[in-house]
Amino acid sequence: MSLYRDEGVVLRTMRLGEADRIVTLMTKGHGKVRAVAKGVRRTTSKFGGRLEPLSHVALLCWQGRELDIVNQAEVTDAFRTVREDLARMAKAFTVLEVVDQLAQERHANARLYDMLVGALRALEADDAPLLVPAFCLKALALEGSAPVLEECASCGARRDLVAFDLLEGGVLCRSCRRGRAVSPAALELVRRILGGGLASALAEPDGPVVGEVTELATEAMEVHLDRRLRSLRASPAS
Ligand SMILES: [Zn+2]
């Protein structure tokens, strides 16, 4: 078995036997990795609470055929502010769930990894209303599945874009309209997120336009993944 070093974010964990856990991580160099943390559930564990979901860790792992084995883990960032705030925690779990769905096992995706760490750091610094929608839209763009925004996805008209339908691939003009109605302000905000204006978009205060973009981004991601986002639909208490 070979030993490797990497860094990663814990996406989720699952019990294994009496004392162990299978930890799913998004790593920088090895993509999504599933690794066994032995003895992690014992009080004397050398891992302590380091391998909890959300933790950003430096890792030393043995590469296995199917599952790797965590040899060492040091926390780089525990995102304490996020952990202490239920609303931020819910957002962080949505980001983790999206990455878990998009990332492929043992297939490095450094840009998705950097986006994940960037989103968690932004959430640690500030509870921006558009953080999760912006993350979803950027991740879709990275996947090559960003919605068409500049012209009608059906006829190519560049004016009077009033609706949004994902089955058509994006915005629609008044004559082709189907799906949901979309305001010019919401479209402008989506363009800003995807067009290099992320920082200013994240500074937007909550309001109807932000709500519109949130619904649109969530729906776009759910259509892309062909599943509902569990963390987004669950109440924080459940
Ligand atoms: Zn049209």
Your description of this structure?
The structure is a single chain. This protein has 238 residues and is an alpha+beta fold. The protein is built from eight helices and eight strands; from the N terminus they run E-E-E-E-E-H-H-H-H-E-E-E-H-H-H-H. The strands form two sheets. The chain has a five-stranded mixed β-barrel with strand order 1-2-3-5-4. Strands 7-6-8 form a three-stranded antiparallel beta sheet, with no helix packed on it. Helix 2 (86-102) runs antiparallel to helix 3 (110-125), helix 2 runs parallel beside helix 4 and helix 3 runs antiparallel to helix 4 (131-142). The N and C termini lie far apart (40 Å). 35% of the residues are buried. The mean pLDDT is 93. Bound molecules: zinc ion. Zinc ion binds at residues 152, 154-155, 157, 172-173, 175-176.
Structural class, from helix and strand content? alpha+beta
Low-confidence stretches: none
Small molecules in complex? zinc ion
| Rg (C-alpha, Å) | 20 Å
How do the helices and strands line up, and which of them pair or pack?
Elements: E1 3-16, E2 20-27, E3 32-37, E4 56-62, E5 68-77, H1 80-83, H2 86-102, H3 110-125, H4 131-142, E6 161-165, E7 170-173, E8 180-181, H5 184-194, H6 198-202, H7 208-225, H8 230-233
Parallel strand pairs: 3-5
Antiparallel strand pairs: 1-2, 1-4, 2-3, 4-5, 6-7, 6-8
Task: Write a short abstract of this structure.
The chain is of the alpha+beta class and 238 residues long. It has 8 helices and 8 strands.
